[in-house]
């Protein structure tokens, strides 16, 4: 597969975020639709956590067999750092966002309700939160794009295509998360606002794919894959929390199973095709 085609698929993976963004303009999004899409993403991402970490561990495992301890040490440290940044970094970012939300919801004074004069400021704060969420999503989508491009550059098209499918479906669910603060405030974002938020949240997947194709070595690959694995694991934890709140256990279970089987099926088809 040419680098141009990989870049195109990376762009598609990133811009599937626009599938979820228009939900911000719906007054009553269908709960079962959101729950189903959320659960399918969980299933695919669970498969991806295993697949990505398997590929990240391969060069370390090979070095262990050859007793090249320097490579083992550098690879282990790199993988640990990538996982830590991808997982713990997003946890701290999420905590920062939560504190900003609490500050925005705090009354104007002791025992006082927010006055009507502060309503425009509240709406502005909701817009700022949406922007910050889109920025955070964009940062880890860039890491995901790096993993896609790096895998493709090393000839691991099976992993690259699985990453594109998994991240693409995941990005489709992220769109509503971005516009959720606006929806909570009763704001219906304009189409221009949705366009900008989508570029911030989904565009970095494409940029990361371009960069990742031109930076190839084992240490860099381990770093990218570790960062992506941490990000994926963080997202899985978040999506599981969302699924529990939706209280549609039967639908969620079947859709998670569907997503997991889809991950294995895609890997089998691509591998059988010789990728």
From TrEMBL:
InterPro entries for this protein: ZIP
Topology term for the membrane: Multi-pass membrane protein
A GO cellular-component term linked to this record: membrane
GO terms for MF: zinc ion transmembrane transporter activity
Keywords for the protein's UniProt record, in alphabetical order: Membrane, Transmembrane, Transmembrane helix
Residue spans crossing the bilayer: 6-23, 35-57, 69-91, 129-148, 160-184, 191-216, 222-242, 254-274
Record's subcellular location: Membrane
Pfam families given in the database record: Zip
Identification of the protein by name: Zinc permease
Native species: Streptomyces fodineus
